[in-house]
């Protein structure tokens, strides 16, 4: 894991401690996040997970905005408890007051979408097809049935796939 990211997490906690004049439990930091999210704060596990691909491609903004964003979730949870909204006023207060950053809910990093295979299902009553994910297709093979919303017949695999 990049030392720069770890030290940024630590500096964010130090900023929060100076601002609130109290200490905060340090989280475990993981670099095992994939997909579209840049970071995730697991409040009850006191865990931060970051996306290594998005960090590599956007390291400057990632350190400036994403790391404090996720740390602010843990700080807000430690200060205010479970009953706050994830991006509510308490979190926004920390983003603005402690880190002097805009409380942006989402990143704007370009995410390369991976290609996925869709399994094509049909119903006798419909001209349109129903593309299933690999996970849903597997559930059908395990005995799960999916019904057409219009006529309630079981959707049937056509044998066709397409890559998106």
What can you see in these coordinates?
- It is a single chain.
- This protein is of the alpha+beta class and 164 residues long.
- It folds into two domains: 3-98, Zincin-like; 117-163, no CATH class.
- Helices cover 39% and strands 17% of the residues.
- The protein has five helices and six strands.
- The strands form two sheets. It has a three-stranded mixed beta sheet. A three-stranded antiparallel beta sheet has the order 5-4-6.
- Strand 4 and strand 5 form a beta hairpin.
- Helix 3 packs across helix 4 (89-98).
- The longest helix has 22 residues, at 59-80.
- It is elongated and about 65 Å long.
- The protein starts with a helix and ends with a strand.
What labels would you give this structure?
Zincin-like; three-stranded antiparallel β-sheet; alpha+beta; 164 residues; zinc; three-stranded mixed β-sheet
Question: How are the SSEs ordered, and which strands pair?
Answer:
Blueprint: H1 3-20, E1 28-30, E2 39-42, E3 47-50, H2 52-57, H3 59-80, H4 89-98, E4 117-122, E5 130-132, H5 134-141, E6 156-163
Parallel strand pairs: 1-3
Antiparallel strand pairs: 2-3, 4-5, 4-6
Helix pairs in contact: 1-3, 3-4
Rounded mean pLDDT is 94
Count up the helices: 5
In percent, how much strand structure appears in the residues? 15-25%
Nearest-angstrom radius of gyration? 22 Å
**Main sheet attributes: strand count, strand direction, barrel closure:** 3 strands, mixed
The best one-word shape is: elongated
Helix content: 25-40%
Regarding quaternary structure, how should these chains be classified?
single chain
Active site: 70
GO molecular function, one term: metallopeptidase activity
InterPro entries: SprT-like_domain, Uncharacterised_SprT
Domain SprT-like: 7-158
